[in-house]
Structure formats: C-alpha cells, structure tokens
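Homework help board

Subject: predicted structure for assignment chain

Our instructor gave us this sequence and asked us to write out the predicted structure in token form, then describe one feature. I got the tokens but I'm not sure how to describe them. Can anyone check?
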Amino acid sequence: MRAIGLIGGLSWESTVIYYQIINQRVRERLGGSHSANSLIWSIDYTTVENLIFADRWDEVSALLTGAGRKLEELGAGVLLICSNTFSRVSDDVARTASVPVLHIADVVGAEVRARGCARSGCWARASPWSSPSTGTGWPPTASTWSSRGVSSANWSTA
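My token output:
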C-alpha cells in the first residue's frame, strides 16, 4: 500500500476527521485491522490563520507546497490537504509536487455526477475558493470539477 501524505494542522480538528475517514474506508475495503499507510505534516494553525487574515495567500501557498515536498521526501505517493479552505492553494501544491495531489472538489464533483445532479451548491460562511481581496473563485469552473488525472478509488488498496 502506498503512503498518503496528509498536509494537516489546518486546523488539527479537520486533520483528525480526514485521518479517521481515510482509515475507516481502508478498513471497510480490506477488513480486519487494516489502516492506511500515511504521513502527516501538521502546520501550526496560528501561523496560517495570521496569513489568511492578512490576505497573504502566497505565503500560505509556500507553507503548503513546502509541506508537500517534505512529505514526498518521506515517501508519500499522493498528497491531500486536510481542509476545504486550504484547497484553494491545491493547484500550487500540485504544480510543485511530483506525485498526485487529491482535491476535495474532484471527490465532490464525482459524487454530484454519480447522483445525476446537474447543479450543486456550497453552504458556508464564505467560499473556500474565494479571495477576500478579489471575491473570485465561486462557483467553480468546469475545470475545477474535472479530473486532475488522479483516481482516488484505488489509493487504499494499491
């Protein structure tokens, strides 16, 4: 089984949820006491929170791309950002990574299509893909929902 590199700490509470769900799915598929081979790089949330409030997303991107590179060096075969909000820099992480980066929009988009829905919505205080300075990013474009060349279906059993 390949290792999943989890970029976490954004907040640690969301990291726990991602970690738990990933391991529950692995156990459901493989049975017994199986769990995912995973690596977690946890970033101090106060650091990124201050950058977010200052609208310094370029620095947030640098922190997350650095975390992705470190996880790759440690052997991660795929990366996942354990937060919806920080998925807005997922494409930056993917550009610098040599391994696939899973994106929450791909999973949501696949589920929307599987259910035969023509439209979907997001219930949130603010769009996780929008910028405080530009207000852009929502709704996602067709390319946001399109596949990034990664199938999440086999990562637990590969």
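Reply (TA_rk): Your tokens look well-formed. For the description, you could write something like this. The chain has six helices and four strands. That's the kind of observation they're looking for.
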